[in-house]
Design goal:
heterodimer, A: 369 residues, alpha+beta, Rossmann fold, OB fold (Dihydrolipoamide Acetyltransferase, E2P), 2 domains, 6-stranded mixed sheet, 5-stranded antiparallel sheet, 9 helices, B: 263 residues, mainly alpha, MetI-like fold, 11 helices, 0% strand
Chain lengths: 369, 263
């Protein structure tokens, strides 16, 4: 566990040393009186893998479409390598997008799809072919796929063709609009890793959007969490994980235990729903009321009340096997707790058994909102 | 009911419907294969005499020329207009689109005899000389909506991201159209062309009112039925029907071939 108390207030940004390739300044997109994207300020460093995460309707698709030039910004600036590109149409921008539907040309072969941007640029056929074959190689596709119809490619192969076509364009920035959302779990995990490897091999700047924070965690150098058109938090995966800024971000991370609390002294908070006080490591500045967030893996079963800083008595309601981990649902009065353990540490507990659960003060995260 | 008898029943029903649909066309073919002057069933003396006589007739050649000219003109103009109409119909979301869709499709359901009369009155009012050219215009009024609908079906399955992707990869608006929009929608355009050609080819009521002194094949068939029947009528009817069927099958065969070549 990192020291979240520090990173909550200070953004340690390991990318900030590199020069920004893309700068957004109070970027806004309005539809009537509704701001789909609402005053976003952001610097993306050259070579960075930056992921924007948000639920549907958070404005992330509108944002990336503005960056790619498919949507006109209402106000604010998009600055690419020092040049304002707001009014530059998509076909003049040195950026390229991989679409959610992939948008492979169905009437063309794999090779023709990859060569498309080169053909538009007027590269001669022999050179086009050489480049396309090299890209097939780089994307781990067999050479004989060159003449294959894209309609006969599998889901994973199409992903690779779409990426190869985008790379053939040789963009300064590659945008990704949830390209893996329609892919089954196992293949998605493989492709996430491949994409990260391609990012490393090419050294290009990747800007990726997804609704899955899990996906973002796997691939990104930095993550921006978006809600209602605004960036709620920007940070490394570790920062987002260990120091979520508010309840929204913490819940977006998946199963967490969230308890509404108010401040009570220097290292204590009161939880009305439990009629109890909980010990915390530190209370952030200006915090008066909010939520105490405890990740399921930081809650453990204990034998006696002294074994953890905070201990509650409850009943085991159910257990869920999640591959390498096991989750337990424990009911404490009206409240539900999720406790998670690694499979090899799993407890032999019966349903409806009375259990003691506990966590240490340092593992509770206080968030506002 | 057993699985087998259920199957037998489905087949029998399907066959009955097919016979009901196709038997009349077969009768035309049979009626053309007689050597006698009049229409008599069963046919007394079989022969191809009337086929030869029909194809030797200069009058018939002229009929074909007129019908084909009208159908070709209608096809070219209708497809050009309907293609862009279909994009407005199915590709773009714009204010008033649902109203546009209804207005465009409405003429399909106008009674054609009324539409023909209306066009005749209108051409007269503006002082146009009736000829095959006015018939082209009349056909277009009815056929453009049909072709718009046919092409729209293809446009509905068109992923707009294809155009955006091509544009994003550096293509100009024109290159996007030439390299992506047009080829991807080509099967729809072929279908639309076939519909345009064949609907114009077989149209009777609109031609009757609006082509003046020029005569199309359906008009001739009708006139000969009313007065002066010869087995040349079913010959012409057979050629007209089977020619249309062949064109249609050929067109779809081409589309299928293209699809096969792709995958």
């Amino acid at each position: 566990m990192t020291d979240w108390g520090d990173s909550l207030t200070i953004h340690k940004d390991r990318m900030s040393k590199r020069p920004p390739i893309l700068q957004l300044k109070s970027l806004t997109k309005s539809f009537g009186t509704f701001n789909a994207v609402d005053g976003i300020d952001l610097d993306i460093a050259e070579g960075e893998f930056f992921t924007i995460v948000g639920p549907s309707g958070s404005g992330k698709t509108t944002l990336i479409r503005m960056l790619a030039g498919m949507e006109q910004a209402s106000s604010g600036d998009i600055i690419l390598s020092g040049t304002r590109i707001n009014d530059m149409p998509a076909n003049k921008r040195p950026t390229c997008m991989v679409f959610q539907s992939l948008a492979l040309f169905p009437h063309r072969t794999v090779g023709e799809n990859i060569e498309f941007p080169l053909k538009i640029k007027g590269v001669d056929p022999a050179k086009r072919r050489t480049r396309a074959l090299a890209l097939l190689d780089q994307l781990r596709l067999p050479q004989n796929y060159y003449g294959k119809s894209v309609l006969r490619c599998s889901g994973g192969e199409r992903q690779r063709v779409a990426l190869a076509r985008a790379l053939a364009f040789d963009p300064q920035i590659l945008f990704f609009d949830e390209p893996l959302s329609a892919i089954d779990y196992k293949l998605r995990k493989t492709l996430e890793k491949e994409l990260k490897d391609i990012h490393r091999e090419t050294g290009k700047t990747f800007v990726y959007i997804t609704h899955s924070l899990e996906e973002a965690m796997v691939m990104s150098d930095r993550i921006g969490v978006m809600r209602a058109g605004k960036l709620v938090q920007v940070g490394t995966p570790n920062e987002i994980y260990s120091a979520p800024r508010d309840k929204f971000v913490s819940e977006f991370m998946g199963d967490v235990n969230v308890i509404p609390v108010s401040m009570n002294g220097s290292r204590k908070v009161t939880a009305d729903s439990f009629d109890k006080e909980f010990a915390v490591a530190a209370i952030p500045e200006a915090f008066s009321a909010g939520h105490l967030v405890i990740r399921p893996e930081f809650i453990r079963f204990v034998d006696k009340a002294k074994d953890a800083d905070n201990v509650l008595e409850g009943k085991l309601y159910n257990e869920y096997a999640l591959g390498s981990r096991i989750q337990y649902q424990v009911r404490v009065g009206e409240n539900v707790f999720i406790v998670e353990k690694l499979r090899q540490q799993s407890s032999t507990l019966r349903r409806d058994q009375t259990v003691l659960i506990g966590w240490d003060a340092k593992d509770g995260i206080l968030v506002t909102g | 009911m057993s699985e087998r008898s259920r199957h037998a029943l489905i087949w029998a029903w399907t066959l009955a419907v097919l016979v009901f649909i196709y038997l009349p066309a077969m009768c035309i073919l049979l009626a053309s294969l007689t050597s006698s002057r009049y229409f008599l069933f069963p046919i007394q003396k079989w022969g191809l005499d009337w086929w030869r006589k029909t194809f030797d007739s200069i009058e018939i050649h002229q009929l074909f020329k007129t019908s084909i000219t009208i159908a070709l003109c209608v096809t070219v103009i209708a497809v050009a207009i309907a293609f862009f109409g279909a994009l407005a119909f199915a590709r773009y979301n714009w204010k008033g689109r649902t109203l546009f869709q209804k207005i465009v499709l409405l003429p399909i359901f106008f009674p054609q005899s009324v539409l023909g009369l209306a066009l005749l009155l209108w051409f007269n009012a503006i002082g146009l000389q009736m000829s095959w050219m006015t018939a082209v215009f009349a056909h277009l009024v009815w056929i453009i909506p049909v072709v718009t609908l046919v092409i729209s079906i293809q446009v509905y399955s068109f992923d707009p991201a294809l155009e955006e992707a091509a544009f994003d990869l550096g293509a100009s608006r024109f290159q996007v159209f030439r390299e992506v929009t047009l080829p991807v929608l080509l099967p729809g355009i072929v279908s639309g062309s076939l519909f345009a050609f064949l609907l114009s080819w077989g149209n009777f009521p609109l031609s009757l009112y609006t082509d003046g002194a020029d005569t199309t094949i359906p008009e001739y068939l009708y006139a000969k039925m009313v007065a002066g029947y010869t087995p040349g009528v079913p010959v012409l009817g057979t050629v007209s029907t089977f020619g249309a069927a062949l064109l249609l099958l050929g067109g779809y065969w081409l589309i299928t071939l293209r699809r096969r070549a792709q995958s």
